[in-house]
Amino acid sequence: MVVPFVRFLTGLILADVLRDYCKKLDIEDGLSALGFTYTDVQPLAEATIPQQQRAARLAPRENTRDDIAHILEQALTIY
Known about the structure:
Elements: H1 2-24, H2 41-48, H3 52-55, H4 65-74
Helix pairs in contact: 2-4
């Protein structure tokens, strides 16, 4: 089917454009550019647990500490 492929290509193009803007605007490359390292991931994930009461109400499923840690690991570098 053509439509899913077109959406996939559109997403890739959009991602490239956003990365290019981030580089041109000198936006920090993720949490690592702010001084965070892999060893900070678990403490940061632990610190977000109390915040979940407010933020997670709209989430489609409950997030675990491991889910949050994975998101933070991926956010160490963005581009």
